[in-house]
Structures are given as structure tokens and as C-alpha cells.
Amino acid sequence: MTQHQQQPAAADNEAPTTPTRSVKASGPLRTPSRWWSRRRIPAAIVALVLSAACGALLFDTVRVRTGHTAGAWRKSLTHELSTRPLNDPWILTGAAIAAVLGVWLLAVAFTPGHRRLLPLAGPDTDPDVDVMLERRGAALLMRDAALRTPGVSEARIRVHRRHVTARTRIRFRDPETVENELTDTLGQQISDLGLARSPRLTVQVRPRST
Fold first, then answer.
1. What are the tens digits of pLDDT across the range 106-133?
2. Structure-model confidence comparison of residues 159 and 21, the more confident one
3. How many CA atoms, within 13 angstroms, populate the side-chain half-sphere of residue 159?
4. How far apart are alpha carbons 166 and 147 in whole angstroms?
């Protein structure tokens, strides 16, 4: 039988990440489904663009009110908007870009973000602390648990918010027996992680090709 080098899991060979802690103001014990991101970069981009546009328009308006002529960019923009038909390619392109930006801003506003963090069950002794674990760290822990199962030579673990998928290859032993042991082992590992919401586990076992 030809020996093959063991392949790394989907989570790469990085060390598990230490759970993240966030101290909040005092309140009732709760376990959030996901932390809300502060969206600093999108908020900064929108603020800068709107500030620049409003500042330029205000400056040109003040110039006109003080007896000066309107800026060339304002005259050109007004002329283009008043003369181009609605089916003009430039008008359609601008409308499409505005629609895409609007959908993106709505998605940013109504989605919590922090998709790489999994919420852990909050400690009963400290209700003001939320604890999160990175998916990459959870995948590495589960991969190590899978590789400790006799017969398993390769393991690829995908950790999502609602489910975990384990794809493994075995070198020896009966596949059904290994699958049952893997299901028990990984199920116990998920329980040991202390996740706030236990994900659904899917295990796939394939014999290793020779």
C-alpha cells in the first residue's frame, strides 16, 4: 500500500484562538446569537463621502449667494442631468451603482457581522460577560479530536453557526464503526466547547485511496 502524507484540515495549522471576552454594562444574563459589529470602515467611508459632497455643494452655494458664478462642475452636472434621457447608458449605470450601494448599506445596517465568532454559554457567576470563540479555533480542536480516533488518517472540519461538517478518510478499520466513534467523539467535543447553541453535526467517512 502506498503511503500518503497526511493533509491539513480546512482550518490550517494555526493554534486555536483564545476565547474573546467583552465586558458590558450590568444587565440580565443573556446569550447573544452573534455580536454586532461596529462597522467602523463602512461608517467612515459613508461619512467621508457624504461630508465631501455636502461640503462641496455648500461651498458652491455660498459662492453663488455672494455674487460669484457657480462652479464649472455644478454647471456641467446640471446640464447633463437636464439633457440626458433616462435610458442613457450613463444614467442607467449611475442608477445601478446607486442601487448596489444602497443594498450594501442596508445589508450592513441590518446584519450583525462577526461571522467568525461563535457565542459560548455565559458563565452563571458573571452575567455581565459575553464569551466568544473563533470558528478557526473550534475547527482545530475538533480536527485534533477526529485525528485521535483510531483509523482516521485525514480530517477536514468546517464549522458554521448552525452546523459542523467533518470529512475524514480512514486507513484501516470498518468505516461504519469509525463513523459511529467519530460521531460520538465530535459530539462530545462540541459539548466540551460550551457553545451557546449546539450546531448540527454531519460526519462523512471515506476509505483512503491507495
1. 887 787 767 777 877 766 545 556 677 8
2. 159
3. 27
4. 11
Does residue 13 have a pLDDT over 50? no
3-state SS of the chain is: CCCCCCCCCCCCCCCCCCCEEEECCCCCCCCCCCCCCCCHHHHHHHHHHHHHHHHHHHHHHHHHHCCCCCCHHHHHHHHHHHHCCCCCHHHHHHHHHHHHHHHHHHHHHHCCCCCCEEEECCCCCCCCEEEEEEHHHHHHHHHHHHHCCCCEEEEEEEECCCEEEEEEEECCCCHHHHHHHHHHHHHHHHHHHCECCCCEEEEEEEECCC
